[in-house]
């Protein structure tokens, strides 16, 4: 059988060889992901989930976010200076989580990183971008930590406004697009990778949210990938504890 006919039936029949080889090399590519401390680095969690949840081959490397070696550890990837940083075997360095998401979605269309339906996909992109650029009160006041729940945390009005906004966004996603499963768009999408740290902040600070958001928090906390990430994060101890609160601690709620 001529080489050109059989194995290529699965690909677009009019695809030229250079394009096909490029796609094949992307399929077999292993990404190197540089991350911060798992228990605290919300952006790193996103970066890792967007590879892990879609079975995209990767190796994670820990960067010294709190030990003071971060600049040195990332020096070879300049101008990258924050985590996560994702590198491919062809030399591309992608150093922003939204850029990573779009790069992976473009390279791995078969993996379904964004929802398949165009309207759902547009909404998924919108809420992901809104999180990336906003929710500053929630992010600023409730730094992600996966160790315990702070007891009696009093959210500011600005944090409460962020939570009410989250409820609106999530209700629409779940009602309109979420019929096929427990995630924002039913099955897991990049939006869920982005909102996982938000779920962790709600859990870690015992924030009050409506049932739709609470169900989503529970789904995230029960996710095996999230649990595996957290378990690795808890293997490191911190003295002093980053982002302390003058509050008692209760067990992590999951
Ligand atoms: N826009 C970046 C933000 C990355 C970011 O702020 N990462 C934090 C870790 S959670 C960081 O590297 N902080 C170290 C610092 O600010 O020096 C992204 O989306 O990846």
In short:
With 254 residues, this protein is of the alpha+beta class. The protein contains ten helices and six strands; from the N terminus they run αβαβαββαααβααααβ.
Give the key terms.
8% strand, four-stranded mixed beta sheet, binds glutathione, Glutaredoxin, 47% helix
Protein architecture, described:
By secondary structure, this protein is α+β, with helices and mostly antiparallel strands. It folds into two domains: 24-111, Glutaredoxin (3-Layer(aba) Sandwich); 118-251, Glutathione S-transferase Yfyf (Class Pi), Chain A, domain 2, CATH 1.20.1050. The protein contains ten helices and six strands. It has a four-stranded mixed β-sheet with strand order 2-1-3-4. A two-stranded antiparallel sheet has the order 5-6. A hairpin with a 5-residue loop joins strand 3 and strand 4. Helix 5 (118-133) packs across helix 8 (190-205). The longest helix has 21 residues, at 157-177. It is globular. The N and C termini lie far apart (56 Å). The chain binds glutathione (GSH). Glutathione is lined by residues 36, 41-44, 82-84, 96-98. The site of glutathione has 11 residues, from helix 2 and helix 4.
Layout of helices and strands, plus pairs?
Elements: H1 17-27, E1 31-35, H2 42-52, E2 58-62, H3 70-74, E3 85-87, E4 93-94, H4 97-107, H5 118-133, H6 136-141, E5 148-150, H7 157-177, H8 190-205, H9 211-222, H10 224-234, E6 249-251
Parallel strand pairs: 1-2
Antiparallel strand pairs: 1-3, 3-4, 5-6
Bound molecules: glutathione (GSH).
The site of glutathione has 11 residues, from helix 2 and helix 4.
């Amino acid at each position: 059988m001529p080489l050109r006919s059989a194995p290529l039936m699965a690909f677009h029949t009019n695809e030229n060889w250079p394009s096909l080889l490029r796609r094949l090399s992307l399929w077999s590519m292993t990404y190197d992901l540089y991350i911060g401390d798992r228990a605290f680095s919300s952006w790193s969690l996103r970066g890792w989930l967007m590879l892990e949840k879609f079975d995209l081959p990767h190796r994670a490397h820990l960067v010294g976010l709190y030990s003071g070696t971060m600049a040195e550890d990332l020096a070879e990837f300049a101008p990258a200076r924050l985590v996560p940083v994702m590198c491919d075997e062809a030399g591309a360095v992608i150093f922003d989580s939204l850029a990573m998401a779009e790069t992976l979605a473009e390279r791995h269309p078969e993996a379904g990183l964004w929802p398949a339906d165009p309207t759902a996909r547009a909404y998924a992109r919108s809420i992901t971008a809104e999180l990336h650029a906003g929710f500053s009160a929630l992010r600023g006041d409730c730094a992600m930590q996966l160790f315990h729940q702070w007891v009696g945390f009093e959210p500011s009005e600005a944090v409460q406004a962020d939570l009410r906004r989250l409820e609106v966004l999530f209700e629409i996603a779940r009602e309109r697009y979420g019929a096929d499963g427990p995630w924002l768009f039913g099955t897991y999408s990049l939006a869920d990778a982005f909102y996982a740290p938000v779920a962790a902040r709600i859990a870690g600070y015992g924030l009050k949210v409506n049932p739709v958001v609470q169900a989503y928090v529970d789904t995230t906390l029960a996710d095996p990938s999230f649990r595996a990430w957290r378990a690795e994060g808890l293997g490191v101890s911190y003295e002093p504890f980053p982002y302390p609160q003058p509050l008692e601690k209760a067990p992590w709620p999951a």
